[in-house]
Design brief:
The protein is 65% helix and 0% strand. With 307 residues, it is an all-alpha fold. It has a domain of 204 residues. This is DUF6895 domain-containing protein.
């Protein structure tokens, strides 16, 4: 199996696994002291972001769209208490932007919690909100979320972008694991999660077009499936994506028959909750990469032949 069918099947299997294991998207009522109270919210925000991509691209099929909608309803109503848990988190850690970041994609999909919106707007007025010290790509993401929420960004997006690794286009052989994720998320924020490939500056698009095939080969050889999946998303965000067949073949081969995608190498061992915590993210990434790549592939098929 190869090509469009393979890309589609990766996403369908991933979404099926996420739905069957939706209990893993749990919130801890009494987390251990070393774990942030709001850390468990982040997977739900990622789920909402990627579900929005699936709905936006409209290529996953009715069954996958229905599963994504059921996952969102479960996350919002059952886990987040229709937003009450996010409001409580905002009140506990008033300067933490995580509740806003998680809330924005839910709100864009029709879920609302007015009291949370009021709390975010109030806390955003504090100088300490914008003074939060974060790495440059995180600041770029916060600027995007503030804009989408309807707030003035604490730092203009172009200034935040200029501070990122990717904006400087350093030596490509210096890319390691953490830098790889800095690259992918910079692209996600600049393109609005693949909605606007034109959001990539031309020089960065050229830089990525030149070096992305090398990075795909590297992470494929290393079996780093989570980062490989994010780089496949980056490929689909480029003005002229390659949909690299070898990378997709290796990525699809790493996916388990039930749809789970390991972070690297094979599947981890452990109890169900521990395994979910390790593999939910690469599995979400697989659904994300599939939706974007499938959309680009179908667009290419529909494009008129050159004269």
């Amino acid at each position: 199996m190869s090509g469009i069918q393979q890309i589609h099947d990766v996403g369908a299997r991933a979404l099926g696994w996420l739905y069957e294991h939706r209990a893993g998207f749990r919130l801890d009522d009494d987390p251990p002291p070393e774990v942030g109270v709001l850390d468990r919210f982040k997977p739900l925000g990622e789920l909402a972001l990627i579900s929005k991509v699936i709905f936006r691209e409209g290529v996953a099929g009715s069954q996958q769209a229905a599963l994504a909608r059921k996952l969102l309803d479960h996350a919002w109503h059952e886990l987040l208490g229709s937003g009450a848990r996010l409001l409580d988190g905002q009140r506990r850690e008033s300067l933490c932007p995580v509740p806003m970041e998680v809330y924005v994609p839910f709100r864009e999909l029709g879920f609302r919690e007015p009291s949370l919106e009021a709390a975010v707007r109030l806390n955003h007025r504090l100088k300490s909100w914008g003074a939060l010290e974060v790495v440059p790509v995180r600041r770029l993401g916060l600027s995007a979320m503030e804009r989408r929420f309807g707030l003035e960004p604490s730092m203009p997006a172009d200034e935040a972008y200029r501070r990122t690794w990717l904006s400087r286009r350093p030596e490509p052989w210096t890319v390691e694991g953490n830098i790889g994720y800095d690259i992918t998320h910079t692209v996600f924020h600049l393109t609005d999660w693949g909605a606007d490939p034109a959001g990539l500056p031309a020089d960065v698009a050229d830089y990525l077009a030149l070096w992305l095939p090398v990075w795909l080969d590297d992470w494929l050889d290393l079996g780093r499936w989570d980062l490989l999946g994010e780089l496949l998303v980056v490929d689909a965000c480029l003005p002229e994506p390659t949909l690299d067949p070898a990378a997709w073949e290796g990525f699809a081969a790493a996916q388990q028959p039930d749809g789970a995608m390991p972070v690297m190498g094979g599947m981890p061992e452990g109890d169900e909750e521990s395994v979910f915590d390790l593999v939910y993210h690469p599995t979400l990434v697989a659904a994300f990469a599939s939706a974007l790549a499938l959309s680009r592939a179908l667009s290419d098929l529909a494009a008129p032949a050159p004269a």
